[in-house]
Design goal:
Number of domains: 1
Shape: globular
Strand content: over 45%
Helix content: under 10%
Order of helices and strands: EEEEEEEEEEEHEEEE
Structural class: mainly beta
CATH architecture: Beta Barrel
Largest sheet: 15 strands, antiparallel
Distance between the termini: 14 Å
CATH topology: Porin
CATH class: Mainly Beta
């Protein structure tokens, strides 16, 4: 699956083990002039949600495919009593010619939920000085039965297909109206919805950037 969000393109493959207790992921993300390659094993809880992940990431220059950095990482996913993703804890260790860096980078992602909607996401090393803050507002009323995930990726763009499967807990109830990054970059969303006697489906949605540029997306459901 290929996912485009915030100028990040992810191309990934997913293989479940025979018991359904883990997913082997091989993914590639493009970030500007860099290519990031991930080899990861995502372990699942009994209910099918993501429990933890272990992997290696290599960062390469697109122009000549030269290695810029390699790191080993581990991730732990935490949920609240409503089975909503509450926080993510990440530990990264740079891999050098002499082995792993003895001083790992530890950082976190926290999520705030209100009325069964994710309203805020904070990435930080120091909680008082977050690296990135995402804020979300939603349309009122009842949500639809089939809606696209339009919020920014949870940690990695290649996790998005797994979010549709419920691997990261219960999803937001309402349709996203606005997404704001660091209180100064807001993207607006609108939707075309098809309704029958048994279900409601988002067939198209529109993403309007601060520059005024608007992109239309057609959604296919199987």
């Amino acid at each position: 699956m290929e996912t485009t969000t915030s100028k990040t393109i992810a191309d990934a493959s997913y293989e479940y083990d025979i018991n359904g207790s883990s997913v082997t992921i091989n993914a590639e993300e493009l970030h500007g002039d860099q290519k990031w390659i991930f080899e990861e094993i995502l372990s699942l809880n009994i209910d099918g949600t993501a429990n933890s992940a272990e992997g290696v990431a290599g960062m390469y220059r697109v122009e000549d495919n030269s290695l810029l950095m390699k790191k080993r990482y581990s991730v732990v996913f935490n949920y609240n009593v409503a089975q909503q993703l509450e926080s993510i804890n990440i530990v990264e260790k740079r891999i050098t010619d002499n082995g792993e860096d003895p001083y790992p980078l530890k950082w976190n992602v926290d999520f705030v939920w209100e009325n069964n909607n994710m309203t805020e996401c904070r990435e930080y090393v120091n909680q008082t000085s977050p690296m990135k803050v995402y804020e979300y507002t939603y349309y009122g009323g009842i949500g639809v039965d089939y809606a696209p995930i339009t919020q920014y990726p949870v940690l990695r763009a290649y996790y998005t297909p797994l979010r549709y499967q419920g691997r990261f807990g219960i999803q937001t109830k309402s349709l996203l109206k606005k997404a704001t990054i660091d209180n100064n970059y807001t993207t607006d969303y609108s939707y075309n919805i098809s309704t029958t006697s048994t279900k409601s489906i988002v067939e198209e949605y529109f993403e309007k950037l601060p520059s005024g540029r608007e992109t239309q997306y057609t959604v296919g459901w199987e």
